[in-house]
Amino acid sequence: MEHHDEISNAIPLIASENVTSPAVNEAIVSDFSHRYAEGWVGQRVYAGCKFIDKVEQICIDLTKEYFNCCFADVRPVSGVMANLVLYNAFTSRNNGKMMAMPIPKGGHISHAPYETSSGRRIYGTAGTVRGLEIKYLAFDEENMNLDVDESAKAIREFEPEMILFGGSVFLFPHPVKELSEVAKEIGASVGYDSAHVAGLIGSGYFQDPLREGADAMSLSCHKTLPGPQTGAVVSDREDLVDDLKNAAFPSLFSNHHLHNVAGFAVALTEMLEFGKEYHKKVIENAQAFGTALNERGFNVLCEHLGFTKSHQVVINIVDFEKTVGLGGDIERLLEDANIIINRNLLPWDIREGRHYMNPGGLRLGTSEITRLGMGKSEMVDIAEFFKKLIIDQKDPKKVREEVAEFRKNFQEVKYCFNTPNKAYEYLKFY
User: Fold this and answer.
1) CA nearest neighbour of 81 among 231, 265, 260, 263
2) Residue 367 and residue 256 share a domain
């Protein structure tokens, strides 16, 4: 209860989070959470799956409709698990090779190579668990995107089995079309980690990876897609269906989270109905937020490109190091005022000696606050809170009171069916 009370009075700006609707919440506390259904729909290892099969098939059909594709697997229990499905399908174990976005420059940790320092292991990740050799694509720091020419050169030199697009800092569409053509030259498969931007893509914004050259796309269902915490894999290539299914089960999991499949189905009905309006406002709010922060003296990255074309805004806060500190310090300061954000490495932080625990950047997201009904004018209000705390150095306890008063008007989840029954009526058409 303490957590719920805290969050209901907060401004939630973490880019990897969202809030589920009452209808989704009802689905994920169903009896499905107690059950097993190993295998594919109609091919279960367990009995008692008659209704589970029906719901999962509905979820598959809705996913295919939302992403305009011929195949969907809604069993992966997370975005990282969905990435592993792609790794399993498209690379060899122990001597496979993959290229992805650099981790210090916004790539996700599940894309990272095995690294050592003075003979000591630093970390292994989802790819290196499979024994993959992973190298980075080239990155353009000024434009916060992959560098097409240098990445193409690196791909031809390394000759990976798989190229993976996507990242955790994801301001602009990746050059999927251009680099997919290079991948075809060397016979590499192309994956796209859409964890952060899946909702934007499904609603027709950002970019269309499956039509731009990606063989398959992994996703999280709980970021710009406001569903429960789970994952999925989609593809529009009929010839890859068996490979993708076999790469998932029983290779990576036995049972999956059936209650979250039900919740995801409900969330998809909401996005098919309300997603175009919702995600348009998510992007507009991010751009308005970037503008408002910039006008108040913050160094928001990529002003020359309109700050962002996604739900994310990234700030370079090194100018405040001597007054209030770096990313970790500012994260704590904002949390004292009940503004919830996350610190983030900037592309140049590592070479300038900054650590991920106290980096030079902040990553902010507008998915959740948009779903709570906030618009462009509220982006200005929130930017003003940032100014009070970081530039004017106001007492966070006093600002916290203002934040709570501000949040009183934004307690209901929007862009969803008013009651669970309306969602279930929608599902009857499938």
Assistant:
1) 231
2) no
Q: How far apart are the first and last CA of the chain?
A: 37
How confident is the model at residue 424, as a pLDDT? Answer: 62
Q: What's the Rg (C-alpha) of the chain?
A: 22
Q: What would the 3-class secondary structure string for 225-250 be? A: CCCCCCEEEEECCHHHHHHHHHHHCC
Q: What is the mean pLDDT of each run of 10 residues along the chain (430 residues)?
A: 90 97 92 90 92 95 98 95 94 87 86 60 61 91 98 97 96 98 97 98 98 98 96 98 93 90 96 97 98 98 98 98 96 98 94 91 98 98 98 97 97 86 58
Whether this model's pTM surpasses 0.85? yes
CB 146 within 8 A of CB 137: yes
| Domain CATH number, residue 384 | 3.90.1150.10
Residue whose token pair is 């919830």: 340
Considering the domain architecture, whether residues 303 and 292 belong to the same structural domain is answered as yes
DSSP state at residue 194: -
C-alpha torsion sign, points 356, 362, 367, 373: positive
**Residues with Cβ within 8 Å of residue 172, at least 6 apart in sequence:** 143, 144, 145, 302, 305, 308, 309, 310
Provide the domain limits for residue 171: 22-271
Q: Are residues 321 and 341 located together in one domain of the fold?
A: yes
pLDDT score recorded for residue 126? 63
C-alpha 40/C-alpha 52 separation (Å) is 11
Would you state the pLDDT for residue 320? 97
pLDDT at site 123? 52
The answer to whether the beta carbons of residues 133 and 113 sit under 8 Å apart is: yes
Q: d(Cα 392, Cα 9) in Å, to the nearest integer?
A: 23
Exposed e or buried b per residue across 10-26, where buried means at least 16 C-beta atoms within 10 angstroms of its C-beta: bbbbebbbbbbbbbbeb
> How big, in percent rounded to 5, are the helix, strand and coil portions of the chain?
45, 15, 40
Phi-psi region of 159 (alpha: psi -120 to 50; beta: other; left: phi over 0): left
Residue 417 lies in a domain: no
Does 167 fall in a domain? yes
| 352: Cβ contacts below 8 Å, ≥ 6 apart | 360
What are phi and psi for residue 144, nearest 5 degrees?
50, 50
